[in-house]
Fold:
Amino acid sequence: MKKILLIMLVIATVVIAACGSKTDNTNSKIAAGTLEGIKERGKLIAGVKYDVNLFGLKDPKSGEIQGYEVDLMQELAKHIFGEDKEINDILELKQVSSKTRMELATNGEIDLAAANASSTEEREKIVDFSDSYFLAGQSLLVPKGSDIKSIDDLNAKTTVIAIKGSTSEKTINDSAPDAKVLLFDDNAQAFSALKSGKGDTLINDNAILIGMQEQDENFELTGGLISNEPYRMIFSPENDEFREYVNDFLQELKDSGKLAEIHEKWFGEAPPEDIIQENPYLQ
Structure:
C-alpha cells in the first residue's frame, strides 16, 4: 500500500511540474513581442547593434550605448510607458548583429530589433518588418587613393569585406561573383580587417560606412549608391498588433517633428520627406 501511495505521489508531482512548466512557457510567449506582454512586464526589450557609429555604438569606458536607433527605442519606451518614467526602468537594450537579430526576435529574447535591417522577400518568410524609419543604400569604403571607384572594379584579384547575413553579402555574390569575399560577424571586426589590409574594400550601407569614415579619415566612400535599403524594425511573426502600434508611433514621431530632430542630431540634416515608407511585402 505504501508503495502504491509513493508511486501516486511521484506521478502527481510530475503532473504539477509539467503544468507549471506549460504556464511559464505561455507567459514567456505573451511577454515577448506583444504590447500586452510588454506592458505587463513593465519594460521594453529592444535589440540594437553595439558596433555601428551613429546608429548604435557602445562606449567601452562608460558602457553607454548611443545612436539614432537607440534614441528611437528610448522614444518608443516612453511612448508605451510615459515620459515621466526613468528610461533605464522601462528600456533594456540587448546587443544584436546582422546574424542574430532575426533569431533573437523569433525566439522571444527581444520584443523587436532596430538594427540596420532592410526587408527582403526571404527575410519576410522568417520575421515581420515595420514601416521604414531610415533610408540608406549600399556603397563601398576604401582606403584613400584606392583604384576602386565602383562595383565594376571588383574582380578576381579583389578581396571584398562584408557582414555575414547582410544584404551586402548577397549584392557582392550577385554583382561581382569573381571577387573574393571575406565575411565577419559584425561591423567592428569588418572595419578592423579593412584597416589592417585584409581586404581591398568594405561593402555596407552608406550610413554605416559614413560612421566608419568619421572614425578614421584615411578611408572614403566610393561607388555611389549600389542599392536602396530602407531600414525597418524586426518583429516576431504574428505580432501584428505591436507592429502596427510601432508603425503608428513612427508616423506620430514624424508628424511631431521629433523624428527630424533625432535625425539631425546624428546626421546633421533633416530626413527625406518620404522616410516613412510602408513595408511593400505586407501590401
